[in-house]
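Lecture notes, continued. The same structure-token format from the folding unit now serves as the input rather than the output. Read the line below as a description of shape only.
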């Protein structure tokens, strides 16, 4: 991997990482730079915005959920045919779980592994010279990581900027640009994050506006010049995920969007054909396929329409009678008996798994999951350890599964038992757990 890299990170969430990342990506792409995106940690939504900004897929890099071989394989995908990889962090630069060095899931692990300098985004609203103390702390906290410079976000006035820069000059930290407070820069949001890229009708205009601001407010030449790192080796053992079948029917529309790009890339690399179909268009999984995958997404926003999609539901039941079907999060909800929407209306779903879910009874479920499969199935052999993530507000109204019908025994990232999770019935399985990688036992 010859492409140089750069990590856009921040001391905390809400600092403006996505704004700066998209502005930088679009501006450099407009200049003819072969820029590619990556996202640190488990996130479905931001990579789609990266793809819209650059014209190329963006991949997730996760030091906890991916072993070294998978992480390097995905990093090579991210850098394919690139001059520059711009990776966007999640949460704060050092935020992760308590684990061994390099395995915490924090952005800093990725910067350290690939030698990517960090462009630190500082939200300076409500601060002036004190912002330098925050930058200094980030620069000193982890000797594996180099903070190459900062971008100031939410600058109130020229005087405010001078005060902030005075503090940063005192610690010798380069300022590589600034963006003013501007409510128009905020992308629309809903639960789980930003409104999806495919649903943001004026996205191209927004991205071009961000690129214009980057041209005016960021030192793009200096930022590009500070990129570095060598990336992963040209080849390593192991790598990308294996496909669940030779021809895989994948639900794909506004209700089913959350499928990690590295999963699809791995399936295709091993010769599998991905066959998309749209449940919202009342399409069934094609009978010519030998496995069906229902990704996560927003079925709770489309529950009535899904319940009225007779061809989809009947076709899914027919498919599941002979071939394996798996649902993740939103897909799991649709495989269940019923789904209660935010208004309290209950809608019948496929009835393939003994679970009823509710979006009205909202409670945040968030965190890494390590799952040990209880039986052979579409995800692997009994005893296999899968690593992934949950992020949803829906709840199960039915009792937790008994072991004979559960998909897996699950722990959190630090090994605390969470009990049996998910369901399996015949060839059908599902859970709220999004698969990212696998891990050897022990």
């Amino acid at each position: 991997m010859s492409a140089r890299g750069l990590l856009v990170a921040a001391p905390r969430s809400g600092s403006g990482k996505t704004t700066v990342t998209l502005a930088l990506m679009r501006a450099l792409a407009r200049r003819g730079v072969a820029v590619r995106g990556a996202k640190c940690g488990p996130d479905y939504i931001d990579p789609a915005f990266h793809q819209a900004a650059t014209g190329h897929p963006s991949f997730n890099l996760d030091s906890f959920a991916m072993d070294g071989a998978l992480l390097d394989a995905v990093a090579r995908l991210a850098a394919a045919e690139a001059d520059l990889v711009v990776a966007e962090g999640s949460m704060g630069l050092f935020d992760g779980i308590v684990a061994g060095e390099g395995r915490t899931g924090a952005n800093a692990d990725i910067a350290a592994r690939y030698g990517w300098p960090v462009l630190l985004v500082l939200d300076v609203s409500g601060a002036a010279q004190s912002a330098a103390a925050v930058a200094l702390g980030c620069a000193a906290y982890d000797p594996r990581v180099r903070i190459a410079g900062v971008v100031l976000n939410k600058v109130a006035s020229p005087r405010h900027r001078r005060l902030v820069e005075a503090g940063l000059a005192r610690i010798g930290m380069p300022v590589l640009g600034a963006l003013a407070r501007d409510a128009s820069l905020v992308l629309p949001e809903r639960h789980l994050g930003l409104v999806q890229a495919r649903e943001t009708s004026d996205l191209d205009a927004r991205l071009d506006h961000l690129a214009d601001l980057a041209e005016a407010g960021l030192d793009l030449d200096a930022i590009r010049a500070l990129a570095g790192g060598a990336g992963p080796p040209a080849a390593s053992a192991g790598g990308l995920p294996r496909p669940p079948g030779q021809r895989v029917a994948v639900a794909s529309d506004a209700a089913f969007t959350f499928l990690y790009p590295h999963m699809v890339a791995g399936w295709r690399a091993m010769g599998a054909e991905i066959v998309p179909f749209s449940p919202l268009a009342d399409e069934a999984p094609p009978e010519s396929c030998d496995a069906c995958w229902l990704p996560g997404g927003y079925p709770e926003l489309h529950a009535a329409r899904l319940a009225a999609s007779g061809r989809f539901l009947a076709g899914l039941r027919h498919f599941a009678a002979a071939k394996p079907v798996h649902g993740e999060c939103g897909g799991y909800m649709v495989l269940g008996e019923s789904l209660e929407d935010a208004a309290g209306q209950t809608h019948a779903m496929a009835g393939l798994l003994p679970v009823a879910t509710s979006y009205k009874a909202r409670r945040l479920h968030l965190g890494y999951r390590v799952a040990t499969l209880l039986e052979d199935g579409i995800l692997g052999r009994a005893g296999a350890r899968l690593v992934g993530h949950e992020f949803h507000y829906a709840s199960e109204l039915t009792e937790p599964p008994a072991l004979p019908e559960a998909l897996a025994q699950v722990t959190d990232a630090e090994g605390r038992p969470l009990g049996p999770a998910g369901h399996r019935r015949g060839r059908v399985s599902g859970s709220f757990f999004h698969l990212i990688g696998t891990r050897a036992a022990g």
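Point for the exam: Residues 327 and 430 are 4 Å apart (CA to CA).
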